[in-house]
Amino acid sequence: APDIRFEDVRFGYERDRDILHGVSFTIPAGKTVAVVGPSGAGKSTLARLLYRFYDVGRPGAGPHEPTGRITIAGQDIRHVTQDSLRRAIGIVPQDTVLFNDTIEYNILYGRPDAGHDEAVRAARAAHIHDFIARLPKGYQTLVGERGLKLSGGEKQRVAIARTLLKDPPILIFDEATSALDSANERAIQAELRQVARDKTTLVIAHRLSTVVDAHEIIVLEQGRVVERGTHAELLAAG
Ligand code: ADP
Ligand code: ADP
After folding, report:
1. pTM summary value
2. Cα distance between residue 116 and residue 119, in whole Å
3. Which residue intervals define the domain ABC transporter in the entry (predicted)?
4. What's the pLDDT tens digit per position in 90-103?
């Protein structure tokens, strides 16, 4: 897995109104770093910069690129194509929209706007049952289910499976469990830790309690890093 570095990253959607004011952190290869902070702190913006969601020229883009540097495996992402970024980074968002079809179909075909070529689909279809069998226990019960009568937790499992199927070396969990009740949240968090074991992972979360196992936790407030450390260190700091 690659390492990821944010070096003094500044970014705003509008000129002269920065949302991120010089953010730096490193996710060592295969480790998890969590960004925690209140709503509006800039957490999602930070995650989206990693896959150049707000590239100049795209809808919703800012008038300028972020300044500073973001690198993946030492390579400045400005020099990486959007396609390579898409292949390298798997995202599990908070809200998952599923097709009203089988779970297998949902896992295979991804988001409604996802384009897959036939060869890729065929290869995935051939091993989808093996793939699900290798996921944590909660996933097995999904097979054979149909449609959208799934609980929030089950929907997130489908979203996670869909992301894992393309085997990206980098994962982003953007509030992936924050819409769930606390029992479900704990269950899915445990599963995420298992599936993310050797991936380079960025976790975005509201609460410190959901990111116990991160290599480092960064507390972001109003676009600035105000604290950083392990879960135990941050708890001790109050
Ligand atoms: P968080 O994920 O921590 O809740 P966000 O990154 O979503 O924070 O938002 C940070 C700030 O950027 C907020 O003030 C938000 O209103 C603003 N913002 C987010 N997306 C856009 C956008 N597409 N255009 C303009 N402002 C945005
Ligand atoms: P595939 O590579 O299998 O076609 P997808 O099309 O589902 O996978 O996703 C490809 C990429 O699209 C993701 O890795 C990510 O860069 C982007 N993406 C996925 N989900 C979202 C989302 N909720 N918001 C923005 N971009 C996303």
Report:
1. 0.85
2. 8
3. 4-238
4. 998 888 777 777 77
